[in-house]
Amino acid sequence: MTAYYTHPTFLAHEMGPAHPECPQRLAAIHDHLTRKGLMALLDVREPTEVSDAAILRAHSVEHLDRLVAASPTDRPYQGLDPDTTMNHHTLRASYLAAGAVVGAVDAVLTERQRNAFCAVRPPGHHAERNTPMGFCFLNNIAIAAHHALAEYELKRILIVDFDVHHGNGTEEIFADDDRVLMVSTFEHALYPFSGDIPLGNNMVNVPLAAYSDGQAMRRAVTEHWLPAIERFRPELVLISAGFDAHREDDLSHLMWSDLDYAWISQQLVQIATQHCNGRIVSSLEGGYAIQALARSVGHHVDALLGG
Ligand SMILES: [Zn+2]
What we know:
The chain is α/β, with parallel strands linked by helices and 307 residues long. It has helices spanning 9-12, 24-35, 52-58, 61-70, 90-110, 140-152, 168-174, 214-232, 258-276, 290-305, and strands at residues 2-5, 43-45, 115-118, 157-161, 180-187, 203-208, 236-241, 280-284. The longest helix is centred in the N-terminal third of the chain and has 21 residues, at 90-110.
């Protein structure tokens, strides 16, 4: 069974008119999955808020205090980062987004759920231990990975990040932590302009040139990710699933197609089947061409359902 986590509060977090990271992204995903008949096959769940203790495994006390202090009661607060605005729903949405990924980890490690997709906002992979940035406040995937390490005593967690932007936050939080292998592709040079020099030996970073297509991504996965994953033998696969490398997405210059997202998703399902009873927790990061996002998530969820 594939669990699907989402919550109405994810739609209430808004960063202003014309901001690409908008509530309509989730609405389009929901509509598409419903139209395709996929929603009816999913175990749809509402998350609960993550605990402060779980957040503080990945973030500093100062970071959390800063978010709580910045959370506005009326007018939006823009003082954290120019792209990363808080309205009065943002803090709760962030707690629920991280809570979704943590809850999904619990579900795949203790129940009969095979895998899970978390349709969350705000995303997380740019949030560093001390720094909210790039539309991200809490690093959902990093919090969930730390939760799995601490609560289930896992020894080898694979984090996959195929968002078009480098997952600087996740890399910073897990650099040189041998319990985690992080593999990623991203356009370089593009925001946040990092990743070309990995921060640790447990990082397999594959920068892709602007205007490269899905073939370049498939080579990166086959030649760089798969051998490292084979040696690592993960016990759990976590995915920072960003869909902004799509050719229709204006925030980047990569040229992936819907079918490239189907391909990479099937590869990851295969890896999880081979190494860890199919255990995957995937969480939404970017993807701003709304229809392309919805279709690509459809392929991703379809692969999870087949896993
Ligand atoms: Zn992105």
